Amino acid sequence: xxxxHVVYTHSMRTIIVSDTHLTSVFRHRKCSFLRSIIExxxxxxxxxxxxxxxxxxxxxxxxxxWQELFPLLKARNAVYLYGNHDPKDASDERVRMFSVxxxxxxxxxxxxxxxxxxxxxxxxxxxxxxxxxxxHSDAWLPxxxxxxxxAAAGSFSxxxxxxxxxxxxxxxxxxxxxxxxxxAAANLTPNxxxxxxxxxxxxxxxxxxxxCTGFVRYGLASYLKIEDGALELVTDRY
Length: 238
Hints:
This protein is of the alpha/beta class. It has 5 helices and 13 strands. The strands form 2 sheets. Strands 2, 3, 4, 5, 11, 12 and 13 form a 7-stranded mixed sheet that branches. The radius of gyration is 17 Å and the shape is globular.
């Protein structure tokens, strides 16, 4: 077990979604998509970068029309994990408007899913955003480089190659996923599976006990659905 973890046992429908990068600018299609996956869920886990402090302030975000999603999330006992774009010190007590639990690491126990470790132990998902395991360049950039103008330029630098090469562009992050798998192998017990966001490259690799939930951005979406103990990495467009 990881010190300071939170354990939640659930066998109905849980979704884990990360890297939505919401700002004060409202996107109707994106909101409709998020609503469509939140409403059927019993539990929602927001695995970091729910909103983007590089682009907007927390005050502007929580006062924006994205508030439409907040009561839906609260009603589903949303767990909010802090990411590198939405660190704890960038927000305030209003995180409770859309979540009931706020933490850095969350352990989800799956009573109906026994991972193929051969020991019969109940499986656990160790969920965290991933930036503490594999930091990206923003971890050592000076503060002035993270202002909204610079952040917008950074987003465009990801959007442009995506427009040119499509989803296959995100294979450039494959080496980050491999580093996450190495961390899982070295730090987790055989019945635990690491679930991260951060790398934007969706992947379900149970052989290496690793899942990256990807992102919801640019009209593409991926998230992890857990229903009656079954794990499914869902990919979609909106």
